[in-house]
Amino acid sequence: MADPRTVPYTDPASVLQDMQVLEPVEDGSWPVVILAHGTAQSRSALKGWATGIAATGAITYNLTWPSGAGPTPEAVENLACAVSAAVADAGRHGGDTSRVVFVGHSLGAGVGAPAVLGGAEHLEDCAVAAGEDTLPNGFVGYEGPYDLASVDYMNDRRAPDPPVDESADAYAAIGGNPDLVVRLLHGDAEDFAWYDVPLGVSEDFVDALAEAGYDAELTVVEGGSHVEIGHRGPVEPAVIATVSELLADL
């Protein structure tokens, strides 16, 4: 694997809006994978995922994005911009831009879902010009809060006040990017802390996607929890295997 490089996805550059790129040394036409971490984290949270996915033969973009603001239109625009910038960069470095998968954990999946379904406007300071936005053809989400439009996880799970903008609502985006292949994962080790996402959230979202005609499946990760997602537990290998299988099918 080549030495990692870090590139911004906005212009002007920002340390909160950049991505670390892991890519194979060998020549080839490698698929493209973009990873987005959860609330108030950084890309280090998904380092193991990124390394494992890159090792299977993919150009992998591990983001740091401003997730602390929660489900806002700009947060969705940030992730949509990052996808477009990653695809543009991959096209210049031997990437197969016909096979692009977005992977999100927690808020990265909850906000990533409307972004990859096409619910985002163009981010004003995106490094990719307006009109060059790109949608992925695969989505892998682990324990995403896809119900953010109806549940405020940081406020006793009450209804959001003020309401979440429709552009940040994963359900409102269903119908966009109709060829998107969706693979959701969810652990069965619920602890009911404020940040934990019940299994039913993923079940409901995959059902809604399937009813709308998407190729959508849910896998339950035995022993998987919301925060213990590193190499010592069952989540990391499950995510890496799911991404590898999805790329093989695209």
From TrEMBL:
The superkingdom listed in its UniProt entry is: Bacteria
Family matches, as SUPFAM superfamilies:
alpha/beta-Hydrolases
Tell me what this protein is called. Answer: Alpha/beta hydrolase
